[in-house]
Design brief:
The complex is a heterodimer of chains A (308) and B (599). With 308 residues, chain A is of the alpha/beta class. Chain A is built from 11 helices and 9 strands. Helices cover 37% and strands 21% of the residues of chain B. Chain B has 19 helices and 23 strands.
Chain lengths: 308, 599
């Protein structure tokens, strides 16, 4: 955080004040390994576009993910990126965010990674209001392991682990996120490009833990999962009317989350609450201001003196 | 113990000079007996004496039977003492439970209001004193039994003729921060104990301390490990509370803001290690820690750190296992887990401090290795080291201080995160890449750029690359410290807190005419190449460990040594009773192996 940690503003970086325009070409890395038609392609394309628009310095972009199809995301980004273990992308991102307030941390993952194996981390990263943006690409199924029931699979849907249809009640992502204390909660759809752009942009601009559930179809194992919210397939894409919905009202947001499938899309909830990043920095500043500029080595030296 | 030869009663005016004294306080955990021991230990540190303490704590919240043992000595003190010279018993159950810990002819001070039945055995000299009543009388009506620990402290200072002035200074500093009445009552109780007319008992004096002059400090292993991590340049970390690890995270959580750092209390062990890996990826030397069960939970992510080649310090304060086991007892049964606990081939480093002082230096060594080899490093401390107090020379920070760095200098176009021809050194976020190509950090097997690769040749090459760190380090690591001659009939090998009693056992065996030496291994994995030459000088190698000898008859380190050297001269002395080794247990074990060797 650190004023204390020697953070050499890289001399060469400082000497190059020319603001380079971030381009999709610069951001592109490996060709995605996703199946043709996968909804995740649209999410990736939109993420490139939003980053271009925001023109965040390329070296300051950090993309991390856990395990799953969508969690391959970091390999497709030509930025500092890390592909972690299953379910733990959020605590890893927490470590990056808290220790490097100068970088922008983005987490990508799926419904299994976020709501099942990593479910508890989602609760705690949200309540701590760690500054980062988390996009959950929800396809209602385990795709990488080839068609098992996920925590968002609707009741009755058949899979290899529920051959007679899912019997466990799926979680309601919006309600869960509201209860956990996330400060920006929104829902969008990989097939709704303009809406996705608006929601991603607002999420990234939010100062705190911003989380977006983005429905993204698995054409291989759950084709048609989101037809009911895809107008060209006869569905309805119903947006939240923010002139009617107070995004700072969590009870209203909770009611909104009760809409029958496919539910509503847009920002459910957004409030400003101090981030953990800011609260920790405040503690550091308050503590250091009382020390009167003593060097770190002398702080430790004094500690030893008190133990004599 | 030993050299203390108190014989009571006798004429009261002569003072007998002792070189060692072992005092055991037995009561309940809420009686404040730890603070009696703590004060004595600090006093020893200030009077150039050596000290080692030992305590047991009940694994319950509301207290229960507890002991604190202090071993004071003019010369080197390597154990908390096999037997007590003095037992201070607060209750009948304390008396009954610890009478056997007294040596022949020892002294027992007991609370005459609590202890009613006295054993007439072993020539023990009993002195009944109404601890509570005398304390109440000194402080005044409402004191009840609070403060009786200070009364007992006064008694001990009087019996052993310790430096009262210095001790009052230490007490005053300790209580000075609190309400004025707290200090006043503490000193009233202390003075009452000091002035108490014990009656016809011989008084003793400890010989002057022989420790080097200079600044000496006294503290426990968890404190020294925490401060060592700060000196090593650790500014970020995360953990989850678990006994006996917790006091390290408490210290780091409170101290790090002064240094501009952050220690995060995570929601669980998996999150804790993940956060620390995130901090490492962010370019810092970070750390996490835990005790046995928590280390198991971290294993998947630790394997990731080996695969992704990220520098990370992991502290494991071992306790009695398996499972929840004995949370407040000592054991060394996590060695195999530390080295091999993750799935797949996961090269990483394992170190163990030999005593409380070394907890500081082992943290520095862990930091050096983590940085140099961009690898996870596990420090295996243990419950005994975590809580016992020792006195030693204050570290020279001018010599050892490591300034934290965050290397964001732009990398050249040919820079790669996982080069096959050299050790990985990552470019953290914020670093510009001259070639325009940014690194991927990956848990999938990968090529030199971090891109996933299922290529058979690449997997073998990357496996070789990761293994090479261990081979390079084994060549670089110093030879283990050997106490005694370079050749002989037996070499006792001990690691962690078993080193103290092992070294003392070595001395005792030598004084009995055995050709025995002792070696301490701090670098447990990889083992230093120079160990080969050390073992070569001995007919027998006896590993002393607090873990079970298992299906194959050898402790965990002995198994590794046997795997490395394929030599039947490597033997084991093992135990898992949750208590630190007594010197005589080691002496007996080594003698048995020596006798078998001659047969």
């Amino acid at each position: 955080m650190s004023t204390a940690v020697a953070t050499p503003e890289a001399p060469a970086a400082a000497a190059a004040p020319v603001v380079e325009k971030l381009t999709k070409k610069a951001l592109t890395a490996d060709h995605p390994t996703w199946c043709p038609g996968c909804g995740d392609f649209a999410v990736l394309a939109m993420f490139y576009r939003v980053l271009e628009k925001l023109n965040i310095p390329q070296e300051k972009i950090v993309v991390v993910a856990g395990i799953g199809c969508s969690s391959r995301f970091p390999y497709f980004m030509n930025t500092h990126s890390l592909h972690f273990i299953h379910g733990r992308a959020l605590p890893l991102a927490t470590g990056v965010s808290l220790s490097r307030p100068d970088v922008h941390v983005f987490v990508f993952g799926g419904d299994g990674d976020g709501f099942s194996i990593g479910g508890n981390h989602l609760n705690h990263a949200a309540r701590k209001n760690v500054k980062l943006t988390y996009i959950i690409m929800d396809n209602f199924v385990y795709g990488l392991t080839k068609n098992q029931t996920s925590p968002t699979t609707p009741i009755g849907r058949k899979s290899k682990t529920d051959p007679t249809g899912a019997i466990d009640r799926p979680i309601n992502p919006m309600k869960q996120l509201l209860a956990s204390g996330a400060t920006f909660i929104a829902r969008t759809h990989a097939a709704q490009v303009k809406h996705m752009e608006e929601i991603f942009t607002r999420a990234i601009n939010h100062d705190g833990f911003s989380v977006v559930e983005c429905l993204s179809e698995c054409v291989m194992f759950y084709p048609g999962a989101f037809d009911d919210s895809t107008p060209r397939k006869g569905g309805t894409y119903e947006l939240i009317d923010e002139t009617q919905h107070d995004v700072t009202d969590d009870v209203a947001a909770f009611k909104l989350a009760d809409y029958l499938a496919p539910g509503k899309f847009g920002v459910y909830y957004q409030v400003n609450r101090p981030t953990k990043n800011a609260l920790e920095q405040k503690w550091i500043d308050d503590t250091q201001s009382k020390l009167g500029g003593v060097s770190q080595k002398d702080i430790l030296r004094k500690r030893f003196e008190a133990m004599r | 113990m030993s050299t203390a030869t108190a014989s009571a009663p006798s004429s009261s005016d002569s003072k007998k000079t002792l070189r060692n004294a072992v005092i055991r306080f037995a009561g309940n955990s809420q009686d404040g007996i730890q603070s009696i021991g703590g004060f004595l230990a600090r006093l020893a540190g200030r009077t150039a004496q050596e000290v080692m303490t030992y305590m047991t704590i009940p694994a319950t919240i509301s207290g229960g039977p507890s002991i604190f043992q202090v071993h004071l000595g003019s010369g080197e003190v390597l154990t908390a003492g096999d037997e007590a010279d003095v037992l201070v018993a607060f209750y009948q159950h304390s008396y009954d439970g610890h009478f056997n810990a007294l040596r022949q002819g020892g002294i027992c001070l007991y609370d005459s209001a609590e202890v009613k039945e006295i054993k007439h055995e072993k020539g023990v000299f009993h002195i009944g004193i109404p601890f509570t009543a005398a304390t109440v009388e000194a402080i005044g009506g409402s004191a009840k039994d609070r403060g009786k620990n200070m009364f007992v402290l006064g008694l001990i200072v009087s019996v052993f003729n310790l430096d009262k002035e210095k001790l009052v200074g230490i007490i005053s500093r300790q209580f000075g921060k609190k309400d004025e009445s707290v200090l006043r009552n503490a000193l009233l109780a202390f003075d009452a104990g000091y002035a108490y007319q014990i009656g016809d008992i011989e008084k003793f004096a400890l010989a002057p301390g022989e420790a080097d002059s200079g600044h000496r400090i006294s503290t426990d292993g968890n404190q020294m490990l925490s401060l060592g991590l700060l000196a090593a340049g650790v500014r970020y970390g995360a953990a989850y509370p678990i006994t006996p690890w917790s006091s390290i995270m408490e210290t780091l959580r409170s101290e790090l803001p002064k240094y501009g750092g952050i220690f995060v209390q995570a929601e669980d062990e998996l999150a804790a290690v993940s956060m620390a890996i995130g901090e490492a990826f962010a370019g810092h030397l970070s750390m996490t820690g835990s005790s046995g069960p928590g280390l198991s939970l971290k294993m998947e992510a630790l394997g990731y750190a080996s695969m992704a080649e990220l520098p990370l310090i992991v502290v494991n304060v071992q306790r009695g296992g398996p499972s929840t086991g004995l949370p407040t007892s000592v054991e060394q049964s996590d060695l195999m887990q530390a080295i091999y606990g993750s799935h797949g081939d996961t090269p990483r480093f394992v170190l163990a401090p030999k005593d409380v002082e070394d907890c500081f230096y082992i943290a520095l060594e862990a930091g050096r290795i983590a940085r140099k080899y961009s690898s996870p490093v596990i420090i295996l401390s243990d419950q005994a080291l975590s809580s016992r107090i020792e006195a030693f020379e204050e570290p020279d920070l001018d010599k050892h201080w490591v300034e934290p760095t965050l290397d964001q200098t732009p990398r050249d176009a040919d820079w790669k995160p996982y080069p096959l021809d050299k050790t990985t050194q990552h470019a953290p976020p914020g670093t510009k890449m001259a070639g325009g190509k940014y690194p991927h950090i990956s848990g999938l097997e990968h090529d030199e750029w971090g891109h996933p690769s299922g290529n058979a040749k690449m997997h073998q090459q990357m496996t070789n690359k990761r293994r090479q760190k261990l081979l390079d380090a084994a060549a670089e690591f110093p030879a283990p410290e050997v106490h005694g001659d370079a050749t002989g009939d037996a070499l006792i090998i001990a690691w962690g807190s078993a080193w103290g009693p092992a070294k003392e056992a070595c001395d005792r065996l030598r004084s009995e005419g055995h050709k025995v030496s002792a070696a301490n291994i701090r670098h447990l994995h990889p083992l230093p190449n120079k160990l080969d030459g050390v073992l070569a000088g001995f007919k027998n190698v006896v590993c002393v460990e607090m873990n079970d000898f298992g299906a194959y008859g050898h402790g965990q380190l002995a198994m590794l040594l046997r795997a490395k050297y394929a030599d039947p001269k490597i033997k084991s002395v093992c135990k898992t009773d949750g208590l630190a080794f007594r010197v005589r247990e080691i002496v007996t074990g080594v003698e048995k192996h020596l006798a078998a060797g001659q047969a």
